[in-house]
Amino acid sequence: MPAPSRKLLPFLGVGLALVIALAVGAMWMGRGTTTPDGGASAASGASADASTSGADFGPSGDQAASAAPPAPPAAPVSADGVSEQSAVQGVLERTSQALAQPNPDQDMTAVLAGDALDQHLALAAQYQAEGMRVSGHPKIVSSEVLEKDGARVTVLACVDSSGVTVTDDAGQSVGDPSAPTRSRMLFTLEQTGGTWKLVHETFPEEADC
Fold first, then answer.
1. pLDDT beneath 70, residues of the chain
2. What is the domain-level CATH number for residue 87?
3. Is residue 187 in some structural domain?
4. Phi/psi class of residue 39: alpha, beta or left (left: φ > 0; alpha: ψ in -120 to 50)?
5. How many angstroms from the chain centroid is the CA of residue 177?
6. 115: containing domain
7. First to last CA, the chain
8. What is the pLDDT of residues 174-201, one digit of tens each?
């Protein structure tokens, strides 16, 4: 499917991305974008500097630093004696941790499936490309089960994003201090193989909580 636009992406992602939309607020929309030509020019300049330095250092220090080990797969959220609220909390914590060092190649299939997985991977790719990082994780303040249908359950939860910080490639927070930090969200979970997975999420008509 086509990649979501930059302006829409914070509002389309897995539950955490919806929470990030609250944490980032209007300042996200005001961030500039780098044109493909500009990016290529910067890369060419860096290559030229490296090739004309005349020094033989062997493998570049920058290259060694960037060669990070592959991110481990996300740990599953057990369905054995775990409530729906705890399952949603577990998924949010794992996606937060993944976006601390975003990598679209990280295996998130233990906790995400369907739309939720696709949207998380799109967000991870954008964050990796732009040097964005997430610290902290949202917390479930309250929740209720609205519907159960076989292995699927729909949970309405009030999510507090006050503990979430999003920074840009310069390490500067892109959050809007005046943005709301709580919102209701609808999460669709599915039990499969003895674990919970998030498959879909959205805002309800009345999102304040």
1. 1-70
2. 3.10.450
3. yes
4. alpha
5. 20
6. 9-30+70-202
7. 33
8. 877 788 889 999 999 999 899 999 999 9
